[in-house]
Structures are given as structure tokens and as C-alpha cells.
């Protein structure tokens, strides 16, 4: 079963799916542990997990999140794509919201299915009936998801501006200029001269030397190093806005996933000092590659740090 990872959201979704699809087998497994490990801590833990898997409330919310989380994963992957423009993202958000609304409207059906297949726990002490309470909570969860989606994704000006200067799109933009995206960007950033920016972009889209540049920072460096800031003044202004605007959570997940994987793997077995050094190496890997004989220098450094029983230094 996939473990829950704090930095990789897809593992949380995979865990819910794994429990939902293998619930009966997990119950059989825990029951077997109860019988073979009688009156032990393992037996008690297996009993508690089995009771949780058989609880109708747990089954309801497991089913509910099994239906909901895949839509979250799809939207997440759509926002990770570099080929999406703002118009497509708006459509993706609309499809996502409609899917969540549909799940919200079918919470009673989910509850009825759980009752028919698994029965009730017999807990009559609650003031509100369990099925009514579960449906209310599930609907509130759907409402929160929809509201948070609208709030967090309401501002997309930096994404649209970035799409104008994504060099992977330059070939298509040279044939079909993205007028709608330009109009939207000017609305978000009124300090930009629309006509001058359009002229500069048209020139940039036609030139082959700009199409080989990756990233807004590299593109800005190219303009600066070749004294083209005045020639492409509006593009320079837009690039400065883009590279200083914080991206969304999904953008950070896409750009810094390597560091997160390093942290997830090593934080339990490595001190903060060494972990920070490893993170710095990951950030500055291009600098490391340019150092001649880097591996040999690292080995010589550690060999000479303290006296060892064996002599690892080769002597002529």
C-alpha cells in the first residue's frame, strides 16, 4: 500500500484508492492477525483497524473521497502542464467544479448504497441520524472545495503573461498571434503598452535565436547581456514582473519536486546541516558539473579529515 507522503499529493489519493479497492482483503488480513496473535498488541491493533474498516461512517467517507480525489488529481495534473493556456485552464476549472457539484448532489445515494451493503452501526445516541450527519459533512466538504478552487485560482494574470513568453509556444504564436491572451495580460497589467508589446512579441516570435531559450530568467538575461532592454522594453518589463511574481502551489510542486523528494527520503536519517548541504548541491548542480575533478577532490577531502585504520591514499 502506498505510504502517505507530505510533499507528493498523489500518494494521498493512491492510499485512499488502495484502501477502497482492497477493503475486504484488509479486513480478512486483520482478522487473521487477531486469530494468530491472540492477546498481543498486534492483535489489539488489528482489531481496531478491522473495526474501523467495518464502520459505516468510515465506509461512507472512504467512498466519498474515492469519488472526489481523482478529480482533484486530474485538475492538479492539468495545472502542471506547460502547454495549457488560460482559456483551457478556465474550461478545466469549470469541468472540475461541475464534477464536484455532481458528487455533492449524490451524497444521499452514496449513503443509501453504504447502508444497503454494509448496514448501520446501531449507534442511536447521536442527536442527528448518522446518515443525515454524513451527508451534511460531505456537502460542506464539496462546498469548501469549490470555494477554495475559485479563490485560489481566481487570479491568473502571471500565468497568462508567462504563456506569452513561453518559448515552446513561439512557433505557433509566429503563425497565430495570441491576441486574446495579450488583451487579458494588458487588463491585468495596465502599465504595459499594448501596441508596443505586441510589436516586440511579433519580432521575438519570428526570430530563431529566441526559440532556443528556456525559462523567463534566461530570456531576460539574454536581453540584458545583449543590451536589448530598450529595444524590447515592454517585453523586459513583463519578464521582470513574471520572474518576481510568486507562483501557485502547483507551480512550486513542478519546479522544486527534486528538493522535496530529497527531503522526504533523507530527513529522518540525516541531520539538518548535512541535509541543507545536499539541498545546496542540488540547487547548484550546474556549478558542480563545471568543477574539474570534483569527485576526486571530494574523496581527497574526506580521506584527509581524520586518521583511519586503512590508508586510502595511493602513494607512488
TrEMBL record:
This is HAT C-terminal dimerisation domain-containing protein. PANTHER family: 52 KDA REPRESSOR OF THE INHIBITOR OF THE PROTEIN KINASE-LIKE PROTEIN-RELATED, DUF4371 DOMAIN-CONTAINING PROTEIN. Residues 205-286 form the HAT C-terminal dimerisation domain. It comes from the Eukaryota. It comes from Acanthoscelides obtectus (Bean weevil). SUPFAM superfamilies: Ribonuclease H-like. GO terms for molecular function: protein dimerization activity.
Amino acid at each position: 500500500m502506498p505510504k502517505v507522503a507530505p510533499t507528493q499529493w498523489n500518494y494521498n489519493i493512491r492510499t485512499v484508492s488502495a484502501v477502497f479497492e482492497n477493503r475486504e482483503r484488509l479486513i480478512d488480513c486483520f482478522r487473521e492477525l487477531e486469530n494468530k496473535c491472540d492477546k498481543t498488541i498486534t492483535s489489539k491493533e488489528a482489531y481496531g483497524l478491522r473495526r474501523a474498516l467495518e464502520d459505516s461512517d468510515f465506509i461512507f467517507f472512504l467512498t466519498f473521497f474515492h469519488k472526489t480525489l481523482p478529480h482533484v488529481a486530474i485538475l492538479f495534473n492539468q495545472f502542471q502542464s506547460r502547454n495549457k493556456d488560460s482559456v483551457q485552464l478556465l474550461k478545466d476549472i469549470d469541468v472540475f467544479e461541475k464534477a464536484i457539484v455532481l458528487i455533492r448532489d449524490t451524497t444521499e445515494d452514496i449513503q443509501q448504497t453504504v447502508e444497503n451493503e454494509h448496514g448501520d452501526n446501531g449507534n442511536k445516541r447521536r442527536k442527528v441520524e448518522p446518515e443525515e450527519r454524513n451527508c451534511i459533512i460531505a456537502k460542506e466538504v464539496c462546498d469548501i472545495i469549490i470555494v477554495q478552487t475559485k479563490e485560489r485560482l481566481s487570479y491568473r494574470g502571471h500565468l497568462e503573461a508567462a504563456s506569452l513568453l513561453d518559448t515552446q509556444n513561439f512557433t505557433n504564436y509566429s503563425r497565430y498571434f495570441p491576441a486574446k491572451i495579450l488583451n487579458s495580460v494588458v487588463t491585468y497589467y495596465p502599465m504595459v503598452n499594448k501596441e508596443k508589446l505586441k510589436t516586440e512579441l511579433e519580432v521575438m516570435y519570428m526570430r530563431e535565436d529566441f526559440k532556443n531559450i528556456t525559462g523567463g530568467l534566461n530570456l531576460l538575461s539574454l536581453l540584458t547581456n545583449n543590451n536589448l532592454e530598450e529595444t524590447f522594453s515592454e517585453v523586459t518589463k513583463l519578464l521582470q514582473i513574471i520572474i518576481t511574481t510568486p507562483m501557485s502551489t502547483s507551480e512550486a510542486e513542478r519546479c522544486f519536486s527534486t528538493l522535496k523528494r530529497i527531503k522526504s527520503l533523507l530527513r529522518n536519517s540525516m541531520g539538518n546541516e548535512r541535509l541543507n548541504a545536499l539541498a545546496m548541491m542540488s540547487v547548484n548542480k550546474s556549478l558542480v558539473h563545471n568543477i574539474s575533478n570534483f569527485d576526486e577532490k571530494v574523496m581527497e577531502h574526506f580521506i584527509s579529515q581524520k586518521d583511519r585504520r586503512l590508508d586510502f591514499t595511493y602513494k607512488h
